[in-house]
Amino acid sequence: MASEKNVDLNSKESWALFKSLVAILLIGLCLWGGQWQYQRGVDRHERNTIVKERITKSAVSLDEISDLSNDPQTFEWRLVRSSGTFDQSEQILLRNRYYEGKYGFQVLTLFRTTTGEKFWVDRGWVQAGATALTKPTITPLPSGQVEIEGRIRLDSSLPQGAFFAISSGSQEIISKLNAQSRLETENYYIDLISGSIPQLTPAAPAKLPELSDGPHMAYALQWVFFAGLAGYGRILIRRSR
Questions:
Q1: Can you state the percent helix, strand and coil of the chain, rounding each to 5?
Q2: Which pLDDT value is given to residue 216?
Q3: Strand 102-113 relative to strand 162-166: parallel, antiparallel, unpaired?
Q4: Rounded distance between C-alpha atoms, residue 96 and residue 156, angstroms
Q5: pLDDT value at residue 181
Q6: Mean pLDDT to the nearest integer, 66-76
Q7: Given this model, what pLDDT does residue 159 score?
Q8: By mean pLDDT, which of 49-53, 155-159, 186-190 is the weakest?
Q9: pLDDT at 160 over 80
Q10: In the chain, what are the domain boundaries?
Q11: What pLDDT was estimated at residue 78?
Q12: Are 108 and 123 spatial neighbours (Cβ–Cβ below 8 Å)?
């Protein structure tokens, strides 16, 4: 009988130890989740602060930024001016873009500066055609030299791979043009805001990112609360015995 009682006692102690380990594991996971959400909140706040600071600065000439190609991230969102010509034979459409609930594309056109740089210019959103093979209505561009003003964006923020490309010889849209490597463009592109002639101003320009800090800090506190519940629940179970 004594042996059976010892076995039963050891079994209960082992079970209690197992539950304690589970509670510790849950607490650890909750605290890790809280730390993860907290860091995401910090990172997002820092990004928003940088974006807000840069978009309020006055526009500068693209030629004045000497290190742009080497370190474009330092200048992302800065407002810049540049002179050159658009190449309407090289245009791509970024699909799955919505504006006021309507499906459409972002129109990117190749731009060649007077000093020899080549980069994409996001000319804003256009509504899709009646079918996938119907060319959307896009504002034509002037053939001569123009001056544009827009925000610097990282080329890495463009989707990878092939895109819809607008054929200059027919009404079809073909999918074979790559924004990153096909034309050896710069490692940045420009979100167009305005230009030297009215038709360059997009009716629906590229949007700025949402500049709120989001719910990450609230989620971090929620995970800490869950950790406290796990610890308190383990204490209640132990007391109930």
A1: 40, 30, 30
A2: 86
A3: unpaired
A4: 18
A5: 60
A6: 85
A7: 73
A8: 155-159
A9: no
A10: 2-52+213-240, 59-200
A11: 92
A12: yes
Gap between the Cα atoms of 78 and 97, Å rounded = 23
Separation of alpha carbons 230 and 226, rounded Å? 6
Overall average pLDDT of the 172-198 stretch = 80
Separation CA 23–CA 227 (nearest Å): 9
Sequential DSSP letters for 84-127: EEEEEEEEEEEEEEEETTEEEEEEEEEEEETTS-EEEEEEEEEE
Closest CA to 196 of 153, 141, 118: 141
Q: Which of 92, 198, 87 is nearest to 144 (CA)?
A: 87
Q: Cα(173)–Cα(137) distance, rounded to whole angstroms?
A: 12
The two structure tokens encoding residue 99: 């504006």
- Exposed e or buried b per residue across 63-78, where buried means at least 16 C-beta atoms within 10 angstroms of its C-beta: eebeebeeebeebbbb
To which H or E segment does residue 163 belong?
strand 162-166
No. of helices (H) and no. of strands (E), the chain: 2, 8
- Per-residue pLDDT, averaged over 179-185, amounts to 70
Alpha-carbon distance 80 to 63, whole Å?
9
CA–CA dist 166, 137 (Å, integer): 11
Q: What percent of the chain has pLDDT over 70?
A: 85
Asked if 163 and 181 touch (Cβ cutoff 8 Å), the reply is no
**CA distance linking residue 95 with residue 99, whole number of Å:** 12
Helix (H) or strand (E) holding 174: strand 173-178
- Kindly report, residue by residue over 108-147, the tens digit of the pLDDT: 999 999 988 999 999 999 998 887 677 888 888 888 899 9
pLDDT for 185 equals 85
